[in-house]
Amino acid sequence: MTYLTLGQVNIPIAWLALIIAILYSDFRSRHSDGATTKLIEHLLYTYIFIWKFSYILFSSSDFFQAPLSLIYFDGGLKGHLLALAVVAFLLYRKRELFDWEVGWMYWVRLVAIYQLIFNSFQEQWFVAGLWIFTLILIERIKSQHVLLVQFFLLMWLDGFISSFTLFHVAVLLTVYFRTKHAQYIAGAGLLSLVAMMLMDVEENITTTTRAAIDLPATTGEQYRLSDQEQSLTVVNFFATWCPPCKAEMPHLQSFADSLPMGVALIGINLTARDNGEEALTDFMETYSVTYPILRDEDDAVGKAFQVKSIPTTVLLNAQGEELERIVGPVSEEGLRQLIKKYESLLSE
Fold first, then answer.
1. Is the bond preceding residue 243 a cis peptide, omega within 30 degrees?
2. What is the spatial distance between Cα 343 and Cα 106, in angstroms, rounded to a whole number?
3. Which of 35, 38, 70, 167 is deepest in the core (most CB within 10 A)?
4. What is the reported pLDDT for 28?
């Protein structure tokens, strides 16, 4: 689960987990160096601000076509790297005022609580249990070795290019370089190699059987998914009145303009929940939609796919079975990462 759905409102689990993690770290650091705690908060908010608004810089065409997309999207990996560079510069300038013991404790608490909450919502109970264990280590032992434990877990679970892993590497290197424990840097490098090898192990792919898609397209033709010869099909359920649906349309169209080989993209308008044919026509013209749009006039497919909140994007294999779904707006980068996850199916 990526979003917590309350009616038609989608609350990103990641943001909810981050807010709780910051509040917990603030609470636990309340008796520590107040100046350091305030500086950490300033650096965190600076990081989030730059990462979020760098979307305008790195996806300017999508932003100007749909300004509301800023609410739902961010600068991605490029935004994280830019924010990390700025925060590192600010920290360097304020280094004399910074208590590193307070700093790394604040960070490891934040990481543990965030991952615990996020993985609990994902019902990854074993992983959540691992983060509970690290939180106990943090609060009882208060050893810098916890940084290495967390680094290993982040590399194994999220990969090197995730935002938490990147930031964690920066914290780890800063702490150990300051204490001149070069052997820990070598250990971190070894752990990273082990983690990357573990991540290369092929995962079992699970599927969910779904109803056949057989709907009329806006062109007047009948579209049957079973007649298509694609290995993967991205199905986007939407309505024209839905703000996040509008925000993601430029990203979907950009994805459609350069589809990976063996991948198809279709949109399913939940017509029974929408504002009529004219609204759909205007919507498609506004966003210059060129990929197939189907009309679910009696909501049969929407109900069969258990679409309760929109937008919802579902990835299907060649047999029409569901591989994965995203509730809430999806970016072009997110779609390409999703396809990459299942690229083994494209060679079959």
1. no
2. 38
3. 167
4. 83
* Beta-bridge mates of residue 9: 6
Task: Give the H or E element holding residue 85.
Answer: helix 76-93
What does the angle CA 17 – CA 22 – CA 24 come to, to the nearest 5 degrees?
95
Q: For residue 343, give the DSSP letter.
A: G
First to last CA, the chain: 29
Domains located in the chain, CATH noted:
3-199 (no CATH), 214-347 (3.40.30.10)
Q: Do 295 and 283 form a contact (C-beta atoms < 8 A)?
A: no
| Residue 317: per-residue pLDDT | 92
CA separation for the pair 77, 161 (Å, rounded): 7
Which residues, given as ranges, of the chain have pLDDT below 50?
182-183, 185-186, 188-203
pLDDT at site 146? 84
CA distance 107 to 95: 16
pLDDT at 286: 93
pTM here is 0.69
CA 90 to chain centre: 27
Decide: 51 and 74 in contact? Cβ < 8 Å: yes
Backbone φ, ψ for residue 323 (5° rounding): -95, -40
